[in-house]
Known about the structure:
Blueprint: H1 18-22, H2 26-49, H3 55-72, H4 85-101, E1 107-113, H5 124-142, E2 147-156, E3 160-167, H6 195-205, E4 209-214, E5 221-228
Parallel strand pairs: 1-2
Antiparallel strand pairs: 2-3, 3-5, 4-5
Helix pairs in contact: 2-3, 4-5, 5-6
Adenosine-5'-diphosphate (ADP) is lined by residues 133, 137-138, 141, 167, 169, 172, 180, 185-188, 191-197, 221.
Amino acid sequence: MVLRGEVTPANEGRPSDESASTGDLTLPGLVHDLNNVFETISEAAELLAGDAQWAALAATIHRSVDRGRRMVGCYAVQSMAGPELEDVIERAATFLKDFLTHMTGTKVKVVRRIPSGVRLQGSLSDWERVFMNLFLNAAQAMRENGGGEITVESRLMEETVEVQVADTGPGIPEAILGKIFKPRFSTKSKQAGLGLHIVHTIVKDNGGTVSAANREGGRGAVFTITAQVPAAD
Ligand SMILES: Nc1ncnc2c1ncn2[C@@H]1O[C@H](COP(=O)(O)OP(=O)(O)O)[C@@H](O)[C@H]1O
Ligand SMILES: [Mg+2]
C-alpha cells in the first residue's frame, strides 16, 4: 500500500465558486481540511483491512468516510436526472446497519416498498442525510423494545413522489408533535435535537414538504415526505 501525502484541492469536482477567491474562505477551507482528514482515516482503514480480524471494521470505516465525503460534496456528481429513491434508501439502510453494528441488543429490519426508477429532485448526499436522520430516530425510538421494523413506502403522483417512513416504536406524544422540527428540540437529554431540523431544511430546499404523525390504529411514528420529481428532459 502506498501512503499518499498530497492534499486534496478544495474545489475538485465542484463547480467553480467565485466567492472562494475573494470573500469568505470558511466553507472551502473546511471542505479542504475535512478531505485531508478523510484521506488519513481511509489510509488507516486500509492498513486495518490487511488483517482479516479487522476487515469488517475497516469496511465500516470506509463506508463512513464515503458518507462524510458525499456530505461535504467534494465527490458529489450532481446528475440532472436526480438520485434514485431506491439507491438513497439503500445507502441510508447501510448507514443504519453500520450504526447498529456496535449497539448490541437492537435489531431493526428495514422493509422497502419502493418501485424502481423513482427519482428525486436534488442531490444524493442531501437525500441520504434526510433518510439517515429519519432511520436513526426510528431506531432510537425502538431501542427500548430491542428494535422493530422501519417501513419505507413510496407513491408516485403526477409531479411529486410521496415517501412514508413508519416505525414500530412508541410514537410521538401529541404534545410535542408541533415542536419536533424546531432546531434544538429533543427529548433525548444528551442529543442536540438537530436531526429533524436538518430533515426539514433539506426537504424544503429541494421543493418538498415533510410532516410527522402517529400510525393509525397502532404504535409507531410515521413521517411523510412529498418531493419533487426531476423534470423530464
Ligand atoms: N421515530 C420517532 N419516534 C418517536 N419520537 C421521535 C421520532 N423521531 C423523532 N422523535 C422525537 O423528536 C425529537 C427531535 O428529533 P431530532 O430533531 O432528530 O433530535 P434528536 O434525535 O437529537 O433528539 C426527538 O428527541 C424525539 O422526541
Ligand atoms: Mg435525531
